[in-house]
Amino acid sequence: xxxxxxxxxxxxxxxxxxxxxxxxxxxxxxxxxxxxxxxxxxxxxxxxxxxxxxxxxxxxxxxxxxxxxxxxxxxxxxxxxxxxxxxxxxxxxxxxxxxxxxxxxxxxxxxxxxxxxxxxxxxxxxxxxxxxxxxxxxxxxxxxxxxxxxxxxxxxxxxxxxxxxxxxxxxxxxxxxxxxxxxxxxxxxxxxxxxxxxxxxxxxxxxxxxxxxxxxxxxxxxxxxxxxxxxxxxxxxxxxxxxxxxxxx
Length: 249
Prior knowledge:
α3 (about 75-115) runs antiparallel to α9 and α8 packs across α9. The protein has a domain at about 125-195. The chain is mainly α. The protein has helices at about 1-5, 30-70, 75-115, 115-120, 125-130, 140-145, 150-165, 170-180, 190-230, 235-249. It is rod-shaped.
């Protein structure tokens, strides 16, 4: 018997789960995240107008040179070449003179995005949000004690009660109980329960977080295009794909 036990394949231990990197960014309240998104949107819009003004200045210089050569009787090709050169020179001058102001604006947008590091982790999903409801409270502890060992019918009834009354603490206790059960044995979906109890609140915060990140990246892309003097189609495609991916998650 001892030999048989030794030769029997033993189950491998579960790999230890590592915590996400520790962030020093503060945890922002819902209202703070939404307010930050509004501020970031205004800053990104203002930055876009600055870039447009700079580009118009460079284009105006090129057009001025082309018009001058046209009046002097130069052929169209010479006009275009001179205009392109003047436009490039003007763009370089404008880029150099506006560098400090542009990067100050970009740093502000980047700071807003980085301020979300901790908050984004805590709002990763509706289940993540619901699981914090009533944490450490006597009410939640009592619910968990009462529900421990409950059967599928009782758990289903309690989930119905939680959603009908909007009881997030009961919902959090149910999520804790469900998390201990094998996935195939769970009578209720924790994701569905969380979506019903905190889904709308989560969507508001998640939308605001995505908007802040988008504003930051879009402004960085716009700045790169201005400094290089040419469009960057791949950057635009990546930004659009990332936005679409986040919306469907």
